[in-house]
Design goal:
Pfam families: ABC_tran
CATH superfamily of the largest domain: P-loop containing nucleotide triphosphate hydrolases
Number of strands: 11
GO molecular function: ATP binding; ATP hydrolysis activity
Protein name: ATP-binding cassette domain-containing protein
Organism: Sulfitobacter faviae
CATH topology of the largest domain: Rossmann fold
Keywords: ATP-binding, Cell inner membrane, Cell membrane, Membrane, Nucleotide-binding, Translocase, Transport
CATH architecture of the largest domain: 3-Layer(aba) Sandwich
Length: about 230
C-alpha cells in the first residue's frame, strides 16, 4: 500500500496536490496535459523531488524524507539511463551494487534477468551496439533484478514504434505480475492505458486526482478528462 496523504509538491511557482492510496499489485496510469506535473508526481514519490507538505507512506511507514534508495521503488526513464562505457551485464548489475562488486549470487541474478528479457546473448555488448528496443530491455532487466515492490515508469517507451511499444508494455505487465509489484506509469497514449492500467490518475489544474477504473474513465470521462482526450 502506498499512501499520498495531503501531499503537496512545489517547484518555483508550480504546485501540485495529491491525496490518495494505491494498492501494490495494481497497475496505475498517470495521464494529463503536458506540464501538469505527471513526471513531477513520480519524482516526488521516488524521492527525487522534495515534498513541501503532507506525508508519503508505504505499508503504513512514513518514507517522506527517506533517501530514494530506501523507499522500495525503482524508476524507468524515457532515456533508459544506460552508461555507454559499461557492458549490458554491468549496466544491469548497477541495479544491485553501484560499485559493481558483484557476488556469485548477484551475477546469477543479473544473467537470469537478462535471459528473462531476451538478452542473454548480448550481455558482453555495450549499449551503443544495441537497438532502441534492446536498450529498453536492458533498462527493464535492471528494474527486474532489483525486485522492488513498486515500479515507476516515466514514458519509457515513448520513442519506440507502436508494435515494439506494445511488446514492451506486455513484458512490463508480465514481470509485474510475476513479482507482485505495483506499477505507476506516465503516458499520453489512451491505447497504452487500456492495455496495461487497472486504474487512472488524472493530473490537471494543480491536482493529481484519486485513481478511478481505467475502462470506466476512458469510456465515460468527466468533462476535464474528456477535453484532454479530445
Amino acid at each position: 500500500m502506498l499512501t499520498l496523504e495531503d501531499m503537496r509538491i512545489e517547484r518555483g511557482e508550480f504546485s501540485l496536490a495529491a491525496d490518495m492510496t494505491l494498492a501494490q499489485g495494481r497497475n496505475y496510469a498517470v495521464i494529463g496535459p503536458s506540464g501538469s506535473g505527471k513526471s513531477t508526481l513520480l519524482a516526488a514519490i521516488c524521492g527525487f523531488v522534495p515534498v513541501a507538505a503532507g506525508r508519503l507512506l508505504r505499508e503504513g511507514e512514513e518514507i517522506t524524507d527517506q533517501h530514494p534508495g530506501q523507499r522500495g521503488m525503482t524508476m524507468l526513464f524515457q532515456d533508459n539511463n544506460l552508461f555507454p562505457h559499461l557492458t549490458v551485464r554491468q549496466n544491469v548489475g548497477l541495479g544491485l551494487r553501484p560499485d559493481l562488486r558483484l557476488k556469485a549470487a548477484d551475477r546469477e541474478a543479473v544473467d537470469a534477468a537478462l535471459a528473462r528479457v531476451g538478452l542473454a546473448t548480448h550481455a558482453a555488448k555495450r549499449p551503443g551496439a544495441l537497438s532502441g528496443g534492446q536498450q529498453s530491455r536492458v533498462a527493464l532487466a535492471r528494474v527486474l533484478v532489483q525486485a522492488r515492490p513498486w515500479v515507476l515508469l516515466d514514458e519509457p517507451f515513448a520513442a519506440l514504434g507502436p508494435a515494439l511499444r506494445v511488446e514492451m508494455l506486455d513484458l512490463v505487465q508480465d514481470l509485474a505480475r510475476e513479482t507482485g509489484a505495483g506499477l505507476i506509469m506516465v503516458t499520453h497514449a489512451p491505447d497504452d492505458v487500456r492495455r496495461i492500467a487497472d486504474e487512472v490518475i488524472f493530473v490537471e489544474g494543480g491536482r493529481a486526482h484519486a485513481p478511478g477504473p481505467a475502462a470506466e474513465l476512458l469510456d465515460n470521462p468527466p468533462p476535464a478528462l474528456r477535453a484532454y482526450l479530445g
